[in-house]
Amino acid sequence: xxxxxxxxxxxxxxxxxxxxxxxxxxxxxxxxxxxxxxxxxxxxxxxxxxxxxxxxxxxxxxxxxxxxxxxxxxxxxxxxxxxxxxxxxxxxxxxxxxxxxxxxxxxxxxxxxxxxxxxxxxxxxxxxxxxxxxxxxxxxxxxxxxx
Length: 147
Hints:
ATP binding
């Protein structure tokens, strides 16, 4: 609703440098939040990398079934993410995910220019203007099931 949007706009924290708030879904937290090193908008780039990985692979790049939250955090901070399979995932997709899931936020794709993410070769086949205006037809649609 318009009221909810206006309230969120008034209460949202505008981050110009770094913030130290600890918030977010555990499976999506970047190392700098877990380690309380301060984070900026590049934390969102990490989350995008997790999301793209999940959309491609159908599972989280760090979480295993039965893993407790502390082990998840240790895995995110210390271990490389599970690699995307070379035989079924394009080199461009693997490169994009690897660069978004860079543990050093200063080296993460999009750190210097957010545009760098959209200019990555993985997005080259998409007309981003049409995507923004919702003019691209989905390559797949589920069969509708009667309620």
